Amino acid sequence: MNPADVTYLPETPAHDAEIEHINEEAFGPGRFARAAYKIREGGPHERELSFVAVHRGCVIASVRMTRIAAGEGRALLLGPLAVRPAFKNLGIGRRLVAVALEAAEKAGAAAVILVGDEAYYGPLGFVRVPRGQVSMPRPVDLDRILAVEIEPGAVARFKGEVCHADHAKVLDGGLVQP
Ligand SMILES: CC(C)(COP(=O)(O)OP(=O)(O)OC[C@H]1O[C@@H](n2cnc3c(N)ncnc32)[C@H](O)[C@@H]1OP(=O)(O)O)[C@@H](O)C(=O)NCCC(=O)NCCS
Prior knowledge:
Elements: E1 6-10, H1 16-27, H2 35-40, E2 51-55, E3 58-71, E4 73-83, H3 92-106, E5 111-115, H4 118-121, E6 127-128, E7 134-135, E8 145-149, H5 154-157, E9 158-164, H6 165-172
Parallel strand pairs: 4-5, 7-9
Antiparallel strand pairs: 1-2, 2-3, 3-4, 3-9, 5-8, 6-8
Bound molecules: coenzyme A.
């Protein structure tokens, strides 16, 4: 496969069915029990900050971004990230993460957070959030909560139980940064 044949596009509703299939293939039914899934259930994801990789008209990989909150902190939750098996190890996952991070920065996000393998995401700029600083609505390995800080101090402000930012809006009575 020629990497030049893969295009990276912002997600649209037309991609939904293929993305659902890719996530089902990558994570199976267990995905519904994950902490990050529970947070994402709290509201919509950000289509303009979520991306697909397309090859010959088919979606072959996807990354989504969702606005989240913890205490005073606001961030984007990166995930799920999944690449179709036939297209793994070609740099597509790394490229999708880079595209999503660039878009997050341009959109003025304070930080990007995820639950994932440090071995994969560390070289892409993610570092561990200090153990115990945040909790999630379902059990999660705290050493897998990783962050890229965009605005200085944003990760330190991101403290306590993580929820979808739309839920925080309700709690704050509308006093919310995006
Ligand atoms: C993880 C995933 C997104 C990586 O996408 P990809 O396009 O295959 O990855 P890339 O080509 O960008 O990077 C490949 C490199 O990452 C490494 N890698 C892949 N998954 C890894 C992991 N979980 N931990 C550490 N390294 C990993 C590969 O061994 C490879 O290393 P190399 O460059 O030294 O050969 C893809 O394998 C996938 O969809 N997996 C199933 C879903 C999943 O686990 N998503 C991540 C959720 S946190």
